[in-house]
Design a protein that fits this description.
This protein has 597 residues and is α+β, with helices and mostly antiparallel strands. Helix content is 57%, strand content 12%. Helix 2 (22-40) packs antiparallel against helix 3 (47-88), helix 3 packs antiparallel against helix 4 and helix 16 packs across helix 17. 28% of the residues are buried.
């Protein structure tokens, strides 16, 4: 756009404004005409001069009025053009200047010529003003129409863009909702898959154990069938060969808990014997080293022997694959028990020492004798280098340590308990649950019931193991402070908050769930939102007023809340019927944020 020359415009406007002084100029012209007429002479009657003067006077007045009107008209036109110039820019200014010049020429004549040519001047001025006004009007109207059309187009464009933006945002919102729903379904599917996998593993384990038992039982009565001959004998012989191959391999360890009838120990008996030797060793150290305080540690674990699965896997590989003295691991004798014992102590080394600590209060000094006992627990991977296993042995060892064999090892250890609920159990539990209960809450309730009557109470007992923890039931020294049992030996189990944590870990099928629900009563209370007693739902937590105890709401029966909890009074996991607040000590209901995921 060209630069607007405002100075030239103002000059032309000033010239145009002079049109308003035409009346004054006409008056001066009349006076000069009258004086000239006096000098030129006239008849006494003065008719001609008076008529001329009158006509000139009347014409001057008429022209003055019309000129004044023309001035006003011009001013209005200039004002309109000024307004239009402000809107449309320099392109209109040239038109204004032309119009102003057109108006300026007639009124710039000398006053005496204006008196004689007033009629003609007025007509021309009027026509030119009208023409200029018409042209100005066209100039104004045309850009105005263009501006209006442009504005209309822009409004339509803006409306179209707004509609498009709204549609886009709506589409994005719908997509976001669908994505969130899809993510939620994915999480639910993953949870279901994890639970299904856990159930499948347990089912596969039971099937494998049943198959092994069936094979062993069948082998005892095969002699007569072989004597009968035929295809049955051939199949039986092949089956015996297959079992023989298995028993000669590292997998023969899974047959080692079957009674052979030869008055030899089975694996669970050997495990129990070695656990007793371990406990006896600790007691011997304590007796032979008088002390005031006992500091007993097992690499941070409260259980004294927590690596039995690793021990048995190393034993199977070492014994079955020895290049020179390889032997089957299906049966046990005293020689094999001796080999197992050596591996056991290699993987659970006990160190101890005494320390004297002086205490003084500024007046008296006393000495405290502390007996420190440290148990260094090794895993199967630590033994690879110590026993110089070759690549083939390492491969077999890693195969045995896969999760699918864990419960088979637990059977050998002798601390395994099947915690799978039967269909009849699930049906009975479901009678006390709402029919529309959320799947995760329902699974939490069923998981809570799976340990009822099966795990003893142990002060400070915790577990994040998926499924049965092989440490449960093994004699363990209580190390957590604050209990009358501290320092004594009890079968390892769970305390109240440990039970709650295990339930949520297993209902989710993820050990990290303990970070959400918490591992202690106080942290579990902090992980909940307060709920009225009447609004308690299955899966919510119930607390004592002082947070000294916690349980899980597992349903309602005859108006009573059913609360599963691991308590010292009954030394096990039990279900308590609570008729109201504080009727059994439970007072506060908390809704875990765990269910908000």
């Amino acid at each position: 756009m060209k630069e607007i020359r405002t100075k030239s415009l103002l000059k032309n406007v000033k010239v145009l404004d002079k049109a308003s002084d035409v009346s004054h100029r006409m008056k001066n012209a009349y006076i000069r005409t009258k004086e000239q007429a006096g000098k030129s002479g006239h008849n006494e009657d003065g008719n001609y001069v008076d008529n001329a003067v009158g006509n000139a006077k009347d014409g001057s007045k008429t022209i003055g009025r019309k000129a004044a009107a023309a001035g006003d008209y011009g001013k209005n036109a200039v004002w309109k053009i000024k307004k239009h110039t402000f809107k449309t820019g320099a392109g209109v200014i040239r038109t204004e200047q032309k119009m102003v010049q057109t108006l300026q020429n007639p009124v710039s004549q000398p006053a005496n010529k204006a008196a004689l040519l007033a009629g003609k001047t007025y007509g021309q001025t009027d026509r030119r003003i009208k023409q200029s006004a018409g042209a100005g009007s066209k100039i104004i109207k045309q850009p105005a129409r263009g501006i209006v059309k442009t504005a209309q187009r822009r409004v339509k464009t803006a409306e179209h863009r707004a509609k498009t933006a709204v549609k886009t945002s709506q589409s994005a919102a719908q997509t976001a909702v669908k994505t969130a729903q899809s993510a939620k379904k994915t999480v639910q599917a993953a949870r279901a898959a994890a639970r299904t996998a856990a159930i499948s593993v347990r089912a596969a384990t039971r099937t494998m154990l049943a198959t092994i038992k069936a094979i062993i039982t069948a082998l005892k009565s095969l002699t007569a069938m072989i004597a009968a001959g035929g295809w049955a004998a051939v199949i039986i012989i092949l089956l015996i060969c297959l079992v023989g191959l298995m028993s000669e391999s590292v997998f023969g360890i899974f047959f080692s808990n079957e009674d052979t009838g030869k008055n030899t120990p089975v694996m669970s008996e050997a495990v129990s014997r070695l656990n007793g030797e371990f406990t006896a060793k600790l007691e011997q150290i304590e007796k032979e080293n008088p002390h005031d305080t006992l500091d007993l540690s097992n690499n941070g674990s409260s259980n004294m022997v927590s690596n039995w699965r690793d021990i048995l896997a190393v034993y199977a590989v070492k014994l079955a694959t020895d290049p020179e003295k390889g032997t089957e691991v299906t049966t046990l004798d005293e020689t094999k028990v001796g080999i197992l014992r050596d591996i056991y102590w290699d993987m659970n080394k006990i160190d101890y020492w005494l320390e004297t600590i002086a205490h003084t209060d500024g007046k008296t000094t006393s000495a405290e004798t502390v007996l420190h006992i440290r148990v260094t627990v090794k895993s199967y991977s630590d033994m690879i280098a110590q026993y110089h296993f070759n690549s083939q042995q390492v491969g077999m060892l890693k195969e045995l340590m896969q999760e699918k064999y864990r419960q088979l090892f637990m059977k050998l250890i002798g601390s395994y308990t099947d915690i799978t609920l039967s269909p009849q159990d699930i049906a009975a539990i479901s009678q006390n649950l709402p029919t529309d209960l959320d799947e995760l809450r329902r699974n939490t309730v069923l998981t809570a019931y799976s340990l009822v009557g099966k795990v003893s109470y142990f002060w400070g007992g915790k577990s994040t193991v998926i499924g049965w923890d092989s440490r449960w039931g093994t004699l363990t020294k209580v190390t957590a402070e604050g209990s009358s049992t501290t320092g004594t030996v009890w079968p390892y189990g769970l305390d109240c908050s440990g039970y709650v944590a295990w339930v949520f870990v297993n209902s989710e099928g993820n050990k990290d769930a303990v970070d959400i629900i918490g591992s202690g009563t106080s942290s579990q209370y902090a992980a909940c939102m307060p709920v009225d007693w009447s609004g308690a739902q299955p899966g919510d937590l119930a607390f004592y007023p002082d947070l000294s105890h916690v349980g899980i709401v597992v349903g309602k029966q005859n108006g009573d809340l059913l609360i599963a909890n691991c308590n010292a009074g009954q030394n096990n996991v039990t279900v308590t019927h609570v008729s109201g607040i504080s009727s059994s000590g439970f007072y506060t209901i908390g809704r875990p944020k765990f269910f908000e995921k």
